[in-house]
Amino acid sequence: MAWIELLIAGILETVWATTLKLSQGFHKTNFAIYTIVAMVGSFWLLARAIRSLPLGLAYPVWTGIGAVGTIIVGVIFFGDKLSPLTWGFVVLLLIGIVGIKLTV
Description:
By secondary structure, the protein is mainly α. It is 82% helix and 0% strand.
């Protein structure tokens, strides 16, 4: 269950980062509200997950899910351009996240 909570917390991290951009510095109220709700949900689920998972494992996985998710959202929805080398590092990040999960 802790791993599912951690996965959802990471996805919510991607959501709040995305809605933070869409809020234009908290000037668009609806996106600002979505940002705050997603942040609270993400932190709450992370807090639940670290009750049974080691902090040194859960936190990097949480941030990794959020980082990779945000990169993908940036490319798909905001037209961010990444070099092939950057994509290589994204793949390494994914390998690290999966590796951490597999070795616990």
